[in-house]
Amino acid sequence: MFAAGLKLNEPGIFALDIPKPRIERPDEVLIKIIATGIDGTDKSLYRHHLVDAPAQEDFLVLGHESYGVVEEVGKEVKDIKPGDCVVPTVRRGCGICAACRNHQSDYCYTGLYKERGIHKLHGFLTEYVVEHAHHLVTIPQDLGSISVWIEPMSIIMKAMEQMLMIQQRVPFFCPHNQHGWSMDDWGGCKKGIVIGAGPLGFLATAVLALHGMELYNVEIVPEDNIKVQFIKELGASFIDGNAFTAQQVAQGIDRIDLIFEASGASKLAIDFIPVMSRNAIYLMTGVPRVSGRNEEFDADLLLRQIVRQNQVIIGSVNGNREHFKKAVAMVQEIEARYNHILSRAISHRFPLKDFSKAFDLKDPNQLKIVLEVS
Question: Cα–Cα 20 to 30 A to 5, which of 157, 238, 273, 354?
Fold first, then answer.
C-alpha cells in the first residue's frame, strides 16, 4: 500500500510501501482515506528531519489532517457504519494520567501521549488506516474537501473554549448585556488582534469575526498576498508587521481585549504582550522551533503590567474529540456565512503520488495544501 513519510536515517520525504491494515480488535474501524491536508508541522518535520518513529520502526508516515470513508467496522462498533464519512483525531493519551483517562489527552499531565503522523504513531498520508472508533468523529457526507479544516479548527475551538471560560472572570464595560463573555454574542463591542494569517490565523480570524469582534490581523506578507485577501474578506483589517511596531499598532486601535497568536514567530509574539489592555487575554497557539535566540525586553515592566492590569496569557495546543465535534459545526457555519471561503482557501491540490511537489512548494500564495488520495 502506498504511503508518504520520513525515514529515520535518511533526510527527505519518500514513497513508502506498507501493508494494508486490517481490523484486529472489535472496537476498530477500517477507513479509506480520501484526502489529507499539509500544515506547518508536517513541513517542519520534513525540513528539519524530525523523525519520531513508532517503536521498532525506522520510518514515520506523515499526515494528521485527514478524512475518509468507513469500509469496515469491528463487531463492537455501534455508532459508526460502513459508508460513513469520518475525521480521525490526532492525539492518543498516555493511559496513565487523569486527563487522558477522562478522554482529554490534550491536557496530558505526563507528556507520554502519542500523535498520529507526528509523534510515535504513523499518520494518514496513505490509502487506508485502522483506528479505534472512539478516535473518530462522523461528519456530513457533503462536507467534501473542507473536512481537512476540521483538525486545525479543533485547535481554535479549544483555545476559544479556554478564553471564554477565563474571561468570565471580568465584567465588560459596554452597555449591551448580550456582549458579556458568557453570551452567544460575546464578540460585540470588543477589539482583537490575530497575529499570523496562515491556516490557524485564518481560522481564528474567521471564528472571531463570526462572533462580531472588530479584528486586526498582523502578518509579514505583501498586501496583495492571497492570505491578506481572505483576511479582508472576513472583515478584518490587515496590518503589515514589517511596517509597524506593536506600539504603533496599538495606538491605532486604542483598546485591545484579545490577542490571538498563531504565527510561531517568537519576537512578534513577545512584542505584542506590552500592548494588551486592562483585563485582556492573550492566546498563544504558535509553536516556534527552538533556536537558542535571545530577545531583549523589560521583564520588570512586563510582569508589573500583567499583574497590575489583570491580564492573562495562556498557551493552548491540540484538541480532544469534543473540540473536533465543535469544529465540524464551525466549519459548516463559516463555509455557509462567507461564500464557501474554506473551499476557496484550499490553494493547492495534488494527488498523493505528487507528495514531494506538495512538500517542496514555495508559492508565497499558498494557504492550505491538500493531497488527494481517492
Answer: 157
